[in-house]
Design brief:
Helices cover 51% and strands 14% of the residues. By secondary structure, it is of the alpha+beta class.
């Protein structure tokens, strides 16, 4: 069995990295200037949004594993949040969309014509989908969502809402009647986070995704989103490791590069170990979700929780290694720490996902025990 990426997958990651390098504004020290949305068109021309679209709808028909390195690169390059959310929505539409939904949306996603943002969190309701209060009914949707990425430039919203009394997924257009929004004053303006209000917002006839299999659709939505966010987080972590090692090798103190001092060596070594462990968790999650294996949810939650901690710690360590300069606005390390914090709380923080891992593990042991008793 080959556990490595093939040349095409590696080449995709390298190509995306080179493309993002042509947009230095993404890494601007001022987060308010780091929202360069022109990169969307460049990635669309590259064909990024066609990769998950099946061939019969004009796409390439690849899996999440094939874009894992590209997602990692998007994290390292602080790419606009709408890019990742559109990739997440594409997977859900492919898996749970009706024929009409797929025929209408997938060719437009393939061409980069529509952007899809995810609207999940609600104030005071926690992370679990069962706690959602946004309601659908009467061909409309009512409720308020917070921390919706790039809502002002999205064409559609993939919304977690109550459908027939249970959590489900709904697609709504930004221009629909009854949709309003206001920007959040948050730690990372480059994410374009907004509060989104639905006041009986109009829904089209084909607005519901996976209506007959709502539980499966919501579960996969969380798993795909957690996995993609883990990839983004490990991209940030790897970048922090690279800039730290580079600085430690060039910054001279007492006549020697600071990387020659044991305390700095240990920090860099610990970061390297954590990043590689995080990569293993994230890559396995990409495979588990792509192949829809039984421990898909556990793998995605393990990756999201651990990679979030790795990213947070890597950003803090990088700032420490850079010394006083690391705290300056101009160096820009704060941009990665800001984005890491936003990603950590999207689709559940590390505490929620560790609890989910425990629940999934206990459920699997109980099921195995019952199976053994039945066999006996």
């Amino acid at each position: 069995m080959n556990f490595g990426f093939n040349e095409e997958q590696k080449s995709l990651g390298e190509t995306v990295a080179q493309l993002l390098g042509d947009y230095p504004s993404l890494l601007a020290p001022d987060p308010a200037e780091g929202r360069d949305l022109s990169v969307w068109n460049a990635l669309a021309e590259l064909g990024l949004f066609s990769l998950l679209v099946p061939e019969d709808h004009g796409g390439v028909g690849l899996s999440l594993v094939d874009i894992a390195l590209a997602v990692e690169t998007l994290g390292a390059g602080l790419a606009p949040s709408i890019i990742a959310s559109t990739l997440i929505a594409t997977d859900i539409i492919v898996r749970f969309g009706t024929e009409q939904q797929r025929a209408e949306l997938l060719p437009r996603i393939d061409a980069g014509e529509i952007r899809i943002s995810t609207a999940v969190l609600e104030a005071g309701q926690g992370y679990h989908p069962d706690m959602v209060q946004t309601l659908t009914g009467g061909n409309g949707i009512t409720g308020t969502k917070i921390l919706v990425p790039d809502a002002d430039i999205a064409d559609y919203f993939l919304i977690l809402a109550r459908v027939d009394g249970r959590p489900g997924l709904v697609l709504a257009q930004r221009e629909a009647r009854g949709v309003s929004m206001r920007p959040h004053d948050d730690i990372d303006p480059s994410c374009g986070l907004h509060e989104l209000r639905f006041d009986g917002a109009a829904l089209s006839e084909g607005a519901f995704l996976g209506h007959k299999t709502a539980q499966d659709a919501v579960s996969r939505f969380y798993d795909v989103a957690a996995t993609v966010h883990a990839g983004l987080q490990i991209g940030i972590s790897a970048h922090m490791l690279d800039v730290s090692v580079d600085y430690a090798g060039t910054r001279v103190q007492f006549g020697k590069p600071i990387g020659s001092f044991q305390a700095v060596k240990h920090r860099c070594a610990d970061m390297a170990v954590a990043v590689e462990a995080g990569r293993s968790a994230a890559y396995y999650a990409f495979w588990a979700v792509a192949e829809d294996v039984p421990d898909r949810s556990r793998a995605s939650s393990m990756a999201k929780a651990y990679c979030g901690e790795v990213a947070r710690n890597a950003c803090s360590e990088a700032i420490q290694i850079h010394g006083g300069m690391g705290f300056t606005w101009e160096l820009g390390l704060h941009r990665f720490l800001r984005r890491a914090n936003v990603l950590e709380h999207a689709f559940g923080n590390h505490v929620w996902h560790y609890e989910r891992v425990m629940s999934e593990t206990l459920a699997s042991h109980v099921g195995a025990g019952e199976a053994d008793r039945d066999a006996a």
